[in-house]
Design goal:
Distance between the termini: 56 Å
Family: Belongs to the TfdA dioxygenase family.
Keywords: Dioxygenase, Iron, Metal-binding, Oxidoreductase
Oligomer: single chain
CATH topology: Double-stranded beta-helix
Strand content: 15-25%
GO molecular function: 2-oxoglutarate-dependent dioxygenase activity; metal ion binding
Cofactor: Fe(2+)
Bound molecules: fe (ii) ion
CATH superfamily: Clavaminate synthase-like
InterPro entries: AtsK-like, TauD-like_sf, TauD/TfdA-like
Length: about 425
């Protein structure tokens, strides 16, 4: 911004001082402030978290996680998790928007895979569909052993079934990262805590980062209370504000409560199939505005409060592997439908969110179940065709810790010639 402030100094010192603009001063203040590590409206970290390795996290690190990390040679000597250095975190909206703003090449791995998935299914002991429309569990196969052909077939299976589960996995964070890199450019989150030495491996650990959840308030975000979006309990899709949003996310939980801590997914394909042909036609080809979880300061209006990164994407998108249409909205990070007046947008958007959230017949709820120390359970889902939500019924009383790798995918598109899932599969459209 153009406004400058002259600092009050006199004498020879004054001659050497360059006046700082307001945004430069704000930047200096934020970077000097040791109490607030982050600049956004819903800090997921408690105040006073240091940057670099956190010794406090190391003290409460679950034993099963520690075993996995030690076996994988992760350096925990400086603390855990690694919290990004403040100087590397964007403060201003224009800086944050510039990250990955130009597009990058993406190879859709499922598109050329064998539709019968013979190499992948042939290596598994059992393939269990958990519901008719969404969720499949694979038994007797280690993710760390997959060949490229099997990885392609798994990508197609994930695209078709929305989410695929693997229990009892011996999977190092390094191997998990490698797998994610095969499926696309791995997202490096500028703000989130991560595994030391592995910038693409994020940490999902609510005991560490969300101290303000309670039995009463943990689902407030699902009631449309905007300021109450506390995190993963609110239905959401990962990273929708990106120019090329998330494709496959792989969450590997290595510390799991004895009871509770489930995750629920809902299918965007099936949600589209629930709509009337008239509403489908109305939405086909329309766009919506999506925004980031974190907020940043507007350089030209720094005192107006944090603002989110916003991006336009098709509200109905076509999946490049299956060719099926999916409803692409989520309660946490969809602002409005382009071309509608705000009240119209709000009514229709809320209805579409309800379709995803209230129809149990298009959802799967997965109980992770503890496994032996050093092992964990993986869920691999496609964000292009789903929303998900976690169940905080364990209330943080037992540890729940996981590592997450997200592969970014294509620029979202809508192909007017594409079909709905039921249409493509020849199922009844009533
Ligand atoms: Fe998520």
């Amino acid at each position: 911004m153009s406004q400058t402030i002259t600092l009050e100094k006199t004498g020879p010192e004054a001659a050497q001082l360059k006046p700082l603009s307001v945004d430069q001063q704000i930047e200096a203040i934020i970077k000097k402030d040791t109490k607030s590590a982050y600049v956004h409206s819903q800090s997921t970290l408690s105040k006073g978290v240091p940057t670099g390795g956190d010794p406090r996290g190391l003290k409460i690190l679950p034993e099963t996680t520690r075993k996995r990390f030690e076996e994988a040679g992760i350096d925990l000597s400086k603390g855990y998790p690694y919290v990004p250095n403040k100087n590397d975190i964007p403060i201003f909206l224009d800086e944050a928007t510039k990250i990955r703003n130009d597009g990058f090449p993406f190879v859709e791995r499922g598109v050329n895979a064998d539709p019968e998935k013979k190499a992948f299914f042939g290596a598994a002991k059992q393939v269990i569909n958990l519901t008719t429309k969404v969720g499949t569990e694979i038994v007797g196969l280690q993710l760390s052993d997959l060949t490229d052909q099997q990885k392609d077939e798994l990508a197609l299976l994930v695209a078709e079934r929305v989410v695929v589960f693997f229990r009892d996995q011996k999977l190092s964070p390094q191997k998990q990262l490698e797998l994610g890199q095969y499926w696309g450019q791995v997202e490096l989150h500028p703000q989130s805590p991560r595994v030391p030495g592995l910038p693409g491996v994020g940490v999902i650990w609510q005991n560490y980062s969300l101290g303000h959840l309670s039995f009463k308030n943990n689902t407030f975000g699902n009631f449309g209370i905007r300021d109450a979006v506390y995190g993963s309990q609110t239905w959401h899709t990962d990273l929708v504000h990106e120019f090329q949003p998330a494709g496959i996310t792989h969450l590997h939980n290595d510390a799991i409560p004895e009871l509770g801590g489930d995750t629920i997914w809902s299918s965007g394909y099936a949600a589209y199939d629930k709509l009337s042909p008239a509403l489908q036609k109305f939405l086909d080809g329309k766009e919506a505005i999506y925004f980031s979880a974190h907020g940043y300061i507007d350089r030209d209006d720094p005192f107006s409060g944090p603002k989110k990164i916003e991006r336009r994407h098709p509200i109905i998108r076509t999946h490049p592997s299956t060719g099926w249409k999916a409803l692409f909205v989520n309660r946490s990070m969809t602002k409005s439908i382009v071309g509608l007046e705000p009240p119209e947008s709000s009514v229709i958007l809320n209805y579409l969110l309800d379709v995803l959230e209230k129809n149990a017949d298009i959802q799967v709820r997965f109980n992770w179940k503890p496994t032996k120390p050093g092992y964990g359970t993986s869920a691999i889902w496609d964000n292009r065709v789903s929303v998900h939500s976690t169940v905080w019924d364990y209330e943080g009383l037992e540890p729940r810790h996981g590592t997450r790798v997200t592969s970014l995918a294509e620029v979202p598109f809508f192909d007017a010639e594409s079909k709905s899932q039921r249409e493509a599969l020849g199922l009844s459209l009533d």
